[in-house]
Structure formats: structure tokens, C-alpha cells
Amino acid sequence: MTQENLSMTIGGKSVDTAARLDVRNPATGEIFAQVPDAGETELDAAIAAARAAFPAWRDTPWAERAEIVSRIGDTIAANAAELSAMLTREQGKPGEQAQFEVMAAAQWCQATATLTLPDREIEAGPGRRQITRHVPIGVVAGISPWNFPVVLSIWKIAPALLAGNTLVLKPSPFTPMTVLRIGELVRGFVPAGVLNVITGGDALGPMMTAHPGFDKVSFTGSTATGRRVMQSAAPTLKRLTLELGGNDAAIVLPDVDIAETAQKLFWSAFTNSGQVCVATKRAYVHEDIYDRFRDALAEVVAAMPMGDGSQQGVALGPIQNRPQYDRVKELVRDCEAQGHRLIQGAAPEGEGYFVPATLVDNPPEDSRIVQEEQFGPVLPLMKFTSIEEALAKANASDMGLAGTVWSKDAEAALRVAECMETGSVWINEGLALSPFAAFGGRKQSGIGVENGVEGLMAYTEPQTFLIAQ
Ligand code: NAD
């Protein structure tokens, strides 16, 4: 199958539309493919298919559903070469990182398939039994973003299906292809209507969240859109999981190994050219080591080749799309206008959406680059004197997704970590996500969690039975 004729999956069948959506390669700016542009008719058909499939899927034994979820993972792994090349082309990330994302998606399916939600016996007094069971919610709308289109879609597919729901999944219009292809690849063994994949332009997301045919929306994207999703889900009181933006702080204590930490912190901030919800987006470095740490990080930045992700040896790719490119460029321009010192790596010229990897040397706390989520390869480094000061600044944010603490003294780092107001805190590692650990944002970084038993539970509702003998 060529990339030009990918189709949607609705009710287990291939569905196309006369309207088409262009797909651009962000490394070149060229339109290289088109995909279906679904409207109300296709959305209604997908919901009807999911609704029709729900009773039988709900009643399918857990172990059989787990088997199918695991098989989705096997299928993704078996097609990793094709999927990761497609992912690089539409998303821009370097080949090795695309391969990593695809394999992570496969592993996530296999890991999620091992989870269970046993019934709970609850004390109810003599002659009575009380049981709480986790029952599926029904038909779920999954909406995913463009930074990790495959893995973030799988974070919805695997638990939704395992728990017995049926799903209509919509990837971002900027990165629709790899997820459409996964829909095609699993058509042969996922029962018709259980997993529907549809693609469309900007109108399709709001149409989904407002549609009375969905029982739950699982949304990953920006905080601004998350607010709109919540509003639009209100009239029918849809269940919601919102995984939103972050402005994750790193706190670097003075006892770190500077070279090693600079290397690790670089990847925590610049993986996927900074387009990671849990990327380090501001780093507070103790004043005793600030200059040496900044210089070590600058060396790492200088050594990282940026370019078209389909070329060998490229470490950093482009920004995924034009609006985000304009936004990141605007933040860099603001740094320049404010007179902040910038330390920049090299970036290719041309039509691709490349922004050089950039360190911003000790900008003031109230500058835009510190206060706003940049979602690009630009990292502000700030000097701190006391841990209390670093924590106060790290926590002075409406966001609360994740954070990191860096120190040779793990106990001291843990004490700092415990004071961070975020859903996850990682010590001496960045981006440390696990299929077995609950992940979610505090404050305006989200509502609810994905992954782990808690993430699986979010695709169920408790139903309590009382049996009097
Ligand atoms: P976005 O909010 O623009 O879009 C996300 C998805 O929502 C896309 O599929 C889009 O088509 C759809 N959408 C847009 N408007 C909608 C509406 N009104 N109603 C329903 N759906 C709508 O986000 P993005 O630019 O694709 O992604 C970047 C953002 O996502 C960043 O802020 C990042 O931090 C966040 N993010 C969060 C997580 C997390 O797990 N917390 C993971 C990845 C990205």
C-alpha cells in the first residue's frame, strides 16, 4: 500500500472521503501525501459502528481482549520499519527516534495487556456480600497530538480496548498517517467497530467532543484546547481524561557530575526538538556550578546535528508544523528583543521548519521564555542560590505536569522532589515514563491520569453489587 491511499477504519472497513487533507513533510515544507478528511457523516458512521460493537466487546472475556491488545503490539513491532519511516516523514523526528517511538508503542500494548482490574469484595455484614466491579464506560473518543502521534494514540487504544470499551480515534491533522496505517494493519483481527480511526481537519475534534454518541473523551493536547474540550463535554457530562501542556522545571543541585548531567539534561529538554509534553522547559542550576554547567550544556548543543530526520546521523529534527514553528521563532525573537544572551547550535537553511537548539543564559524569571511553554528546542537556564528559591520558582506555575531533580545524593534529591507540585518527578533522569506508572498533570496540566492501573481504571466506572443471602 502506498502512502497516498491510506484509508480510515470504520466498522472494520476501509473508508475514504472525496475531501482530502494535505500532509506536509516538516523537514522540507512539501506536501507529500493526502488523507481522508472526515465530516459529520463519517463521524456518525464511526460512532454507530463503535456503539454496535460495544455489547459483544464488553462481554468478551478479559483474557481475550488482552490477547488482542497484545497482538496490536506485535503487529506494530512487525511493521516497525514501515511505520517509523512514515512517522519520520510526517512528524520530522530522526529515524532512530521514530523507531524508538514505534517500538515503545508496541511494548506499551504488550505491557498494558498484562494489567487487570479484579473485583473487590467489600465488607457488608452478616448474610450479605458486596462487590465492586470495574465496568467499561462505552464508546470513547480518543484525540491525540502531533508530537508523539503513535505512542500517545496507543496510550488510548490499549487501555480503552482492554477495559472493554470501543473507540473512535482521531490523530492530529498534522500527523495522521502512521495512526491510519496502524488502523489498517490491525483490521484483520480487531473485531469490526471496536477500533475506528478517522482523520479530518480542525472542525472534526470539536465535532467529536460535542457529539452525544460518546460516553468519554480522552484528550491529549494543549491546555487551551483542553479547556474547550471540557466545556464541550459538559452538556452530556462525558467522562474526561485531559493530558495537557507543561512547563517542566529541572532543579540541578551543586553536587552533580557536570558533564554527565549536562548530557542527560540535554536529552530531557531537546528530545524531539523539545516537542515533548514532559520535556524540561526551564532549568534552575545552582549558582556554584552555573557557569560550568551552562558551558558543558553548550558543548552538547554544539555537537548535535540538526536536519532532515530521514538522513543518517541526524540528532534533532524540525519543528513539526508551521504554526508551532512561528510560535517558537517568536519566543526566540522576544529573547533577542529583551537582550537575553543566546547560545545556539547550527540549523539547516531552506524551507524546513528548523529552529536551532538554543540555550537562553539566565533570563529573568518573568520573561516569556520562562513563563510560557515553548514546545521547541529552546531552553532557559536560570541561576539559583537556595533550594527554597528554586522550588518556589519551579512551583510558581499554572502547570504541573512533571519535573526533575539532579543530584548525587538521591535522598536529598527526593526531599526536593517531594516539594514539587507536579504529577511526576524524576530524579537523575528525564522523560521516565512507564506503562505501569500513573502519569498525569496537576493544576492546569490535566485531569486524570493515563498508564498503570489508575490509567486503566479511567476507562471504567465502578459498579457495586449487593447480594443478600
Ligand atoms: P492541540 O491542542 O492543538 O491539538 C491536539 C488534538 O486536539 C489534535 O488532534 C487536534 O486536531 C485536536 N483539537 C484541536 N482543537 C480541538 C477542539 N476544539 N476540540 C477537540 N479537539 C481539538 O495540541 P497539539 O499542538 O497537537 O499538541 C501540543 C500540546 O500538547 C502541548 O501543549 C503539549 O504539552 C501537549 N501534550 C501533552 C501531553 C500529555 O500527556 N500531557 C502529551 C503530548 C502533548
**Percentage of β-strand residues:** 15-25%
Give the oligomer, counting copies of the same chain as homo and different chains as hetero.
Answer: single chain
The name CATH uses for the topology of the largest domain is Aldehyde Dehydrogenase, Chain A, domain 1
Describe the biggest sheet? 7 strands, mixed
The CATH superfamily of the largest domain is known as Aldehyde Dehydrogenase, Chain A, domain 1
Ligands, deduplicated: nicotinamide-adenine-dinucleotide
State the CATH class of the largest domain.
Alpha Beta
Distance between the termini: 60 Å
How many runs of DSSP E, i.e. beta strands?
22
Number of domains: 2
**What integer value in Å does the Rg equal?**
23 Å
The chain-level mean pLDDT equals 98
What is the share of helical residues? 25-40%
Which keywords apply here?
single chain, 469 residues, Aldehyde Dehydrogenase, Chain A, domain 1, Aldehyde Dehydrogenase, Chain A, domain 2, 2 domains, seven-stranded mixed β-sheet, six-stranded mixed β-sheet
